[in-house]
Write a structure and sequence with these properties.
Aspartate Aminotransferase, domain 1, Aspartate Aminotransferase, domain 2
């Protein structure tokens, strides 16, 4: 029998996040700080809207591009948050989470052999999606000395005549890094000069802690060469609703919808009605959750300082990315021993790219009570390995 599998699929490594998540399920009394999922329930008024849509029998397919009401609310949100206008009919469509939008954007935009610049450490899906689209992923290694921000020079060092796309993963998972307006303005000059297109993944855009998030779409000359991807999972605690969206030039969005049409049909109808309610009336919920995440963020940074654990201050998402090089272990060894000896699960930095070696990702999308218990275990582990 011939090999039934595609080579480009079998060569892709499984997610390093899931490896530790699966292990921790089998350990009694383990504490996991490994999964990037809000510990809050979806706000009641959003859930209630989903329930109401079911009670009214709204279980039909929507259009391929999603409910008009939801696309309109996406446009309203981007207008009030970024001052940017989109046409709901041709420049916006609703996806099954932000992850589907990343996949569709890659497949709609690249030809075999095109190069995609991917800054790392970053979300695990970008590189596999580029490979599955027959593109060549080109990795840009971000540096802690730059607070893991992307610089113009780093782009120029990697760009070639074959470069077509740049992934812009900010606020960043796993580092918590952000790009401020001045940082975006600096790289926008290079993007326009080199005629690149951008996929900006702003799923954590509402979770920033030193001021309002700025999107690259708000800069002159960037909206027309950018696919903006966002969703409801992180800001509104709606991970299981699987709801996201993409905005961009109509010629690109049209081709993304074509793929979506054949592969998915439409995002879940119940989730779309809930999404309308989230965007219309969810700002106070987001503000409350953001305040609580910020309290946890400050707590962890203070704990690390007392432990002597080096960690740059992150201003976005809900992750910290401390450096563990001082202990003479790889990221995988550190995470494995921490789980085995103290029953505390974190994610090795290498799950997010080779340049994540020497770091671990800790999520603070957990209650302060759980974080305090986890820090007791981490403190004990560091004391033990430092004494040997």
């Amino acid at each position: 029998m011939r090999n039934p599998l595609a080579d480009k699929v079998t060569t892709i490594k499984p997610s390093g996040i899931r490896k530790f998540f699966d292990i921790v399920q089998e350990i009694d009394d383990a504490i996991s700080l490994g999964v990037g999922e809000p510990d809050f329930d979806t706000p009641w008024h959003i859930r209630d809207e989903g329930i109401y849509s079911l009670e009214k029998g709204r279980t039909f397919y929507t259009s391929n591009s999603g409910l008009k009401e939801l696309r309109t609310e996406v446009c309203n949100y981007l207008k009030r948050s970024q001052g940017v206008n989109y046409d709901q009919a041709t420049q916006v469509f609703i996806t099954v989470g932000g992850s589907e939008a990343i996949d569709l954007a890659m497949r709609a935009m690249v030809n075999p052999g095109d190069e995609v610049l991917i800054p790392q450490p970053s979300y695990v899906s970008y590189e596999p999606c580029a490979i599955l689209a027959d593109a060549k992923p080109v990795i840009i290694n971000l540096k802690e000395e730059n607070e893991f921000r992307l610089t113009p020079q780093e782009i120029l060092e990697k760009v070639t005549d074959k470069t077509k796309l740049l992934v812009l993963p900010y606020p960043n998972n796993p580092t918590g890094a952000i790009m401020e307006k001045k940082d975006l303005e600096a790289i926008a000059k290079v993007i326009i000069e080199k005629d690149l297109f951008v996929i900006t993944d702003e799923i954590y855009g509402e979770l920033t802690y030193n001021g309002k998030h700025t999107s690259i779409i708000s800069l002159p000359g960037m909206q027309e060469r950018t696919i903006l991807i966002n969703g409801f999972s992180k800001a509104y605690a709606m991970t299981g609703w699987r709801l996201g969206y993409a905005c961009g030039p109509k010629e690109i969005i049209g081709q993304m919808i074509k793929i979506h049409q054949f592969a998915i049909m439409c995002a879940p109808t119940t989730s779309q009605y809930a999404g309308v309610e989230a965007l219309r009336n969810g700002d106070e919920d987001v503000a409350m959750m953001r305040e609580e995440y910020n309290r946890r963020r400050r707590y962890l940074l203070n704990e690390f300082k007392e432990m002597g654990l080096q960690c740059f201050e992150p201003y976005g998402a809900f992750y910290v990315f401390p450096c563990i090089r001082q202990f003479g272990m790889t990221s995988d060894e550190f995470a494995t021993r921490l789980l085995r000896e103290e029953k505390l699960a974190v994610v090795p930095g290498t799950a997010f790219g080779d340049c994540g070696e020497g770091y671990i990702r800790i999520s603070y999308a957990y209650s302060l009570e759980d974080l305090k218990k986890a820090m007791e275990r981490l403190r004990r582990f560091i004391a033990d390995i430092s004494a040997k």
